[in-house]
Each structure stands twice: as structure tokens, then as C-alpha cells.
Design brief:
Blueprint lengths: L3 E7 L5 E4 L3 E8 L5 E7 L4 H9 L6 E7 L2 E14 L4 E8 L13 E7 H13 L8 E2 L8 E6 L7 H9 L2 E3 L2 E3 L2 E8 L5 E8 L15 E4 L6 E3 L10 E5 L8 E4 L1 H5 L6 E5 L6 H15 L5 E6 L15 E6 L8 E13 L7 E7 L4
Parallel strand pairs: 9-14, 15-21, 17-19
Antiparallel strand pairs: 1-2, 1-5, 3-4, 3-22, 4-7, 5-6, 6-7, 8-10, 11-12, 13-14, 16-20, 17-18, 20-23, 21-22, 22-23
């Protein structure tokens, strides 16, 4: 039987101030972004219980940790709370700890020259946490990627720290090789059994598998371990011509088009990207090429729903991992047997209908 506990802590001190029973819980772990959490709780007539709930769930001040069978599987910040007098329920919405750095800006010019991209990220996080009342306890390390870059974040931009990290993570092209990295803030119990959070950086997180690797997690439909799946294709995200601007008017914008698709009869689909901290035209060009290559066709995203207790069980795979998917049905009458990359996990705790896991998968980029 799966047991969930929900721990509420002061955001700055990380001291646990409440453990509360929640229902209708749904949470998402997301690679390179802040996943979400929603849950509700019924208020009772007990003033003590009511005060515990109200004082222990203050938006923008309270951290939330999700414990599944003794392991922390989610952590973030409560950003909104809503009470409904008719149902007497308090509804909570939280986002993973990456969301804190959306609320922190780079307000002094920071110049990094030929520095490892991981070192820049670590410096930005450490600087944000060095100010008074700015340290939420995210631990960084000194890992490196082997890729050196130059960036200047100007004080007049007031770019938020999360966006700076996201821009860095998108990398660019070095010849034919795409570079960049994955980032997440992971939660776990420390040696004293207290919740902790650590910045994790990897050139490509997770475990790689070939399509024929017998050790890869396998998901099959309809005769296997997949309950259902969705296969959305969103053409609104497609761009085959991209304009990229750099730092200020002194840097000429860069344009890149996918000549192959246009020659094949696709209509022109344009997009614009801005990198206000980049002055290197060659880097801007590589970013433009990478963006067109990434969104030249409707993104292929597969969402599969699987029970957590059927092999491969929940916890044996994680964000960034490759998984093998086999489907043969009306949508894929010839069948597919393809390796996908796991980029998001959504968990429905399921107090009455049973726990359910939804995996969001994309085709690997390399």
C-alpha cells in the first residue's frame, strides 16, 4: 500500500511547521522547469486544526514536501491558497523550488568570460541566496560540464535568475554538435532526516538506452502495462524561420530559415527569440539553427498512463531517462517500437481511485 505524507516548512528556515492530510492531490516533476502541485483539505470546527492549516500554508512563505513511502518525491513553494465556504475546503497550488528563482532578479551586472556553464549557474544561484532573506537553502556543488561560455547579464535588464539559467541551458551548436544542459532542484532527506534541496546539473540527465536494450524500461499498449495514451501534435509551435536578437542595437539580428522545408512546400512560419546577454554573432547563429531544428515540425510528445505498481514500477525510472515504447492500435496500425525520453512525471495520489502515473515523453534530440 502506498502512503503519502505532506510536510509544510518555513521557506527560509526549512523548519517543518505542519503535517497535514490532503486529498485530490496531483503533482508533476518537470525537467528544466518548475512542476506543479494541487491539493485540497477540509477545514473542521476545531480552531486548533484551522489555525494549524492557515498558519502552516501561507502562500509565498511556505515550502511543501511530498513523502511517498518514506522518500521525498516532490518539493516546492505554495504560491496560492483558496478557501470555499460552501465546501469548506482549502485548495493549495504550489510549484517546484525552481519557481523561487523566477522571483529573483539579477540587479548588478555579472560578467562571466570563458567559464564553465555549470559554474555560471552555480554562481547565479549562490549570489541570489547571498542576500539577506534570500537563502532558501538550495545546495550547489562544484560540478563542471567541460563546456566554457561567456555571458554578461546587465543590471538594466533585471533578468530573473531562472530565465538566465534557462537561456544558458539551451546551449547552441558547436559544429554539428548540440550542447546545453539539464537542470533541476532535487529534494531528499538528509542524514538527519530533514528535507533538503540540491541543484542538479547534467549535460544530459538520466540513463540512455538503445531501442533494443533489454534493460530499458518498456511500456506497451494495448496488451502491456499502459492503461491509455495521448499523442498530441501542436502545429502552433512550429517555426521554420527564426529571428534572434542579441545584446542591444549594436548587435545585428540573426535570421535562419529551414530551406529544406520551405522547398518542400511548407508555408513560412516565423518566430523571434531574444538573448539580451549575448554579443557573439556566431553564438546567436548557432542558437537560431538549434531553435529551428528543434521546432521545425509539430513536436512529437507522447503521454502514457501507467499504474505505479506494475513493472517498471514507479521509482525505477526518473526524469531524463530513456524508455522503450511499443504501441500497435488504430493510430499506429503498423506499430511503433521507439525510444523516448522522459521529460515530465505527473502523479495522482488517488485516495479512492488508486494511484496513477502519467509519463510525458519526447523523442531524444541526440
Amino acid at each position: 500500500m502506498t502512503t503519502y505524507r505532506y510536510l509544510f516548512a518555513d521557506l527560509l528556515t526549512n523548519q517543518v511547521i505542519a503535517e497535514l492530510p490532503l486529498t485530490a492531490v496531483n503533482f508533476t516533476q518537470t525537467l528544466n522547469a518548475a512542476g506543479t502541485f494541487t491539493g485540497t483539505m477540509l477545514l473542521t470546527d476545531s480552531s486548533e486544526t484551522t489555525l494549524n492549516v492557515i498558519n502552516g500554508t501561507i502562500p509565498a512563505r511556505t515550502a511543501l514536501y511530498v513523502d511517498r513511502n518514506g522518500t521525498l518525491v516532490w518539493g516546492g513553494i505554495i504560491w496560492s491558497r483558496e478557501y470555499n465556504s460552501e465546501t469548506q475546503h482549502v485548495s493549495l497550488t504550489a510549484r517546484e523550488f525552481e519557481s523561487y528563482f523566477e522571483k529573483r532578479v539579477i540587479n548588478t551586472t555579472q560578467a562571466f568570460t570563458n567559464l564553465d556553464q555549470f559554474s555560471i549557474v552555480q554562481a547565479l544561484v549562490n549570489q541570489a541566496q547571498a542576500v539577506t532573506n534570500g537563502n532558501i537553502g538550495v545546495v550547489t556543488n562544484t560540478s563542471t560540464s567541460g563546456v566554457t561560455v561567456s555571458r554578461t547579464f546587465y543590471n538594466y535588464e533585471l533578468k530573473n535568475v531562472y530565465q538566465a539559467i534557462l537561456d544558458l541551458s539551451r546551449g547552441g551548436l558547436n559544429g554539428a554538435t548540440q550542447y546545453g544542459f539539464d537542470f533541476n532542484i532535487n529534494v531528499a532527506y538528509d542524514v538527519n532526516n530533514n528535507p533538503s534541496k540540491t541543484l542538479a546539473l547534467a549535460t544530459k540527465s538520466g540513463t540512455r538506452y538503445s531501442a533494443s536494450n533489454v534493460n530499458a524500461p518498456v511500456f506497451e499498449f494495448p496488451s502491456g502495462n499502459v492503461i491509455s495514451y495521448e499523442y498530441p501534435e501542436d502545429g502552433s509551435l512550429v517555426a521554420n524561420k527564426v529571428y534572434v536578437t542579441g545584446a542591444g542595437s549594436q548587435v545585428a539580428p540573426v535570421t535562419y530559415s529551414d530551406a529544406t522545408k520551405l522547398a518542400a512546400g511548407w508555408a513560412v512560419l516565423e518566430d523571434v527569440a531574444n538573448y539580451s546577454d549575448i554579443t557573439d554573432t556566431n553564438l546567436l547563429t548557432s542558437l537560431a539553427v538549434a531553435q529551428v531544428n528543434g521546432v521545425g515540425y509539430p513536436p512529437t510528445t507522447l503521454k502514457i498512463v501507467a499504474p505505479p505498481y506494475v513493472d517498471p514500477v514507479f521509482g525505477t525510472y526518473g526524469l531524463g531517462d530513456d524508455v522503450r515504447v511499443r504501441i500497435r492500435d488504430d493510430r499506429f496500425p503498423n506499430g511503433i517500437d521507439t525510444t523516448y525520453r522522459l521529460v515530465a512525471l505527473t502523479v495522482t495520489a488517488g485516495e479512492t481511485s488508486g494511484e496513477k502515473i502519467t509519463l510525458t515523453l519526447t523523442l531524444p534530440t541526440n
